[in-house]
Amino acid sequence: MKNRIVKIAIILAVAATAGGPSFAKKPDAPGNSGTQKSAEENSASVSSRHDSEDSQAYFNADRRNLIRNYFSNSEAPKNCPPGLAKKNNGCQPPGQVKKWRKAEPLPRDMVYTDLPRALIDELGRTPEGNRLVQIDSDVLLINAATGMVLDAFAVQY
């Protein structure tokens, strides 16, 4: 009889632990295996990391105005189709706009150019180890070593 009670106790213990995973927290999105952070956790960690790196954005109102004025006087797109012109994205076709994200490194295949020297001189000193680049109609401040996007400004023509 004792042997039978022990077996029943073991079976009940195994059954109780087997049912445990059904009480686990469900993923936030379909297909989320739980290895990735939820959108809320990710944005909170990125914003806190960004705030700790530098509490003030590089592209302040003065720098934004300088950039806007420079591009409106020299490199505004001409002969842009009406459908793309009203989108204010630098006359870029769909699918070609913004393949980068703030607080993430640029994709390796991303093509960018340095800002014109005259504009860099107008903007003033760039923080040490960082670089100003242009991707389509966006001006980015990136870390020269890692390619991490630190700050960005979308130029509206």
List the helices and strands and how they pair.
Elements: H1 2-18, H2 39-53, H3 61-74, H4 82-85, E1 113-114, H5 117-123, E2 130-135, E3 138-143, E4 149-154
Antiparallel strand pairs: 1-2, 2-3, 3-4
Describe the structure in your own words.
With 157 residues, the protein is of the alpha+beta class. It has five helices and four strands, in the order H-H-H-H-E-H-E-E-E. Strand 2 (130-135) and strand 3 form a beta hairpin. The chain is elongated and about 95 Å long.
Characterize the largest beta sheet: strand count, sense, and whether it forms a barrel: 4 strands, antiparallel
**Secondary-structure arrangement, i.e. CATH architecture of the domain at 68-78 and 103-157:** Roll
Helices, by number, come to 5
Inertia-based shape: elongated
Task: Determine the oligomeric state from the structure.
Answer: single chain
The beta-strand count equals: 4
Gyration radius, in Å: 26 Å
Mean pLDDT over the full residue set: 73
| Strand order of the biggest β-sheet | 1-2-3-4
Poorly predicted tracts of residues: 38-55
Reading the helices and strands in chain order gives HHHHEHEEE
